[in-house]
Design a protein that fits this description.
This protein is α+β, with helices and mostly antiparallel strands. The protein contains 16 helices and 18 strands. InterPro entries: Aa-tRNA-synt_II (IPR004364), aa-tRNA-synth_II (IPR006195), aa-tRNA-synth_II/BPL/LPL (IPR045864), Lys-tRNA-ligase_II (IPR002313), Lys-tRNA-ligase_II_N (IPR044136), Lys-tRNA-synth_II_C (IPR018149), NA-bd_OB-fold (IPR012340), NA-bd_OB_tRNA (IPR004365).
């Protein structure tokens, strides 16, 4: 818009309350006049983005003869004697100027505009597409109407919202900040890309239960609820894995799901109690094939968002997701970084002694938990490029097949990108006898106070006993995938994150 007002300070609570009272009175006047404050519809013929695309470069003072009807939210407003200006914003952030003139709408309509219209209102204008004297693409209104009266004022559009305000009032964030709108579009592009890549490999998308009688599929503390209808305790799912594997048993040999998981754990820059998760399983695949697929999924998603494999984060940093990603051994990389000689047979006491010496604390320590914590201490911080960390301890991976050639480890990888875990993949354990043994060991850990240990699931074991083909599986957080592509924290990638 050509005529902008001087930036104003943020309103106090008293000023907001006063504005609300004034706007409520205007609402009453609109309703009493018969025009209404929230009409059911108006004669829209086009959109702001369509007009901007049709007329990208009009000369100053140009006319088009093109009469349109469009709507938008007022984000700038200036009223003068015989001519009023408003910047109308569409949902994607594009703007166009509306000009309300005495010559076009008449004295009564112009006065009603001045008296009843405020910043934040949604309005409809119909008139000719022109260019102002300063070259601003505009609608010279012949008619106008309020389509939704805003009772509360917008925040100051010239200052940044605080991080807390962004997540608590995301609707305002979307109105005022392009990055917020971009992130929503990027997330939609990522989900569409994931589904397209899976379709290209013959996968079927399914939905599995979020309310479960037994929580399983991951090591995590669940949320607990109660079903009045069944008079039983239920859990919000921590993972869809055990149901997706049932689908593979039933003959859906390539299956995936994108949906919500819930884990009753801490929240920080990379963790949210509620998050979107992708899981996929492929009969007659293994963890190497799932690593190949995961790299393809991530790279296709990066292309969908940024047009290439070198992505630009929100802070301007460029990050390269291209090429074939490194695959390193957990045990070997730990030994190289620490100077230790840890093997899958290293006693717990020896690992515990070293952890104590460097201040690494491990609750309910087992061989596997100690190895993983030591690995994070020595290796994780130095991973810059996307990297698959391969071959994990058996006791921390109860759903994974034993390694085909290395005793004491399983065929599992974790993918690290930007220094955090983005995805995990397995050669799946499909032997029901060994799976039962693993569940029993997990039950022992649970009895010792491990809130994240898995429970013995007889129905899942019964499904395995009907025969599950050798399979590969993978899981990846959608929110974290957005983090890898955009450089944002997890609360920025979730549209409406949980806050206290």
């Amino acid at each position: 818009m050509t005529d902008e007002t001087t930036p104003a300070p943020e309103l106090t609570e008293a000023e907001v309350s006063e504005q609300k009272a004034v706007r409520l009175e205007k609402r009453e006047r609109l309703i009493a006049s018969g025009a209404g404050a929230y009409p059911v519809g108006v004669d829209i013929t086009t959109t702001i983005p369509e007009v901007r695309a049709k007329y990208p470069a009009l000369e100053p003072d140009a006319t088009t003869g093109d009469v349109v009807g469009l709507a938008g939210r007022i984000v700038h407003l200036r009223n003068t004697g015989k001519l009023c200006f408003a910047a109308l914003q569409s949902g994607d952030g594009q703007r166009i100027q509306a000009m309300i003139s005495l010559a076009e709408v008449g004295e009564e309509s112009l006065e009603r505009w001045k008296e009843l219209v405020d910043l934040g209102d949604h309005v409809f204008v119909s008139g000719e597409v022109i260019s102002s004297r300063r070259g601003e693409l505009s609608i010279l209104a012949r008619d106008w109407a309020i389509t939704s009266k805003a009772i509360l004022p917008l925040p100051n559009l010239h200052t940044e919202l605080s991080d807390e305000a962004r997540v608590r009032s995301r609707y305002l964030d979307l109105i005022v900040r392009e990055q917020a709108r971009y992130t929503v579009r990027a997330r939609a592009a990522v989900n569409a890309s994931l589904r397209s890549t899976f379709a290209g490999h013959g996968y079927l998308e399914v939905e599995t239960p979020m309310l479960q009688v037994i929580h399983g599929g991951a090591s995590a503390r669940p949320f607990v609820t109660h079903s009045n209808a069944f008079d039983t305790e239920l859990y919000l799912r921590i993972a869809p894995e055990l149901f997706l594997k049932r689908a593979v048993v039933g003959g859906i040999e390539r299956v995936f799901e994108i949906n919500r998981n819930f884990r009753n754990e801490g929240a920080d820059s990379t963790h949210s109690p509620e998050f979107a998760m992708l899981e996929a399983y492929q009969a007659y695949g293994d963890y190497n094939q799932m690593a190949d697929l995961t790299q393809e999924l991530v790279q296709d998603a990066a292309r969908a968002v940024s047009g290439g494999l070198v992505v630009t984060w929100a802070d301007g940093t460029e990050y390269d997701l291209g090429g074939d990603w490194d695959r390193i051994s957990m045990y070997q990389s730990l030994n190289e970084a620490s100077g230790l000689s840890v093997t899958p047979q290293t006693p717990v006491a020896e690992l515990q002694a070293h952890a104590d010496s460097i201040g690494v604390e491990v609750k309910l320590a087992t061989h596997g938990k100690l190895v993983e914590e030591l690995w994070e201490h020595y290796v994780k911080g130095d991973l810059h490029r996307p990297t698959f960390v391969m071959d994990f301890p058996v006791d921390t991976s109860p759903l994974v097949r034993d390694h085909r050639s290395i005793e004491g480890v399983v065929e599992k990888w974790d993918l690290y990108v930007r220094g955090f875990e983005l995805a995990t993949g397995y050669s799946e354990l499909v032997d029901p006898v060994i799976q039962r043994e693993r569940f029993v060991e997990q039950a022992k850990l649970a009895s010792k106070g491990d809130d994240e240990a898995m429970r013995l699931d007889e129905e899942f074991l019964r499904a395995l006993e009907h025969g599950m083909p050798p399979s590969g599986g993978m899981g990846m957080g959608i929110d974290r995938l957005l983090m890898a592509i955009t450089g944002l924290g997890i609360r920025e990638t979730i549209l409406f994150p949980l806050v206290k």
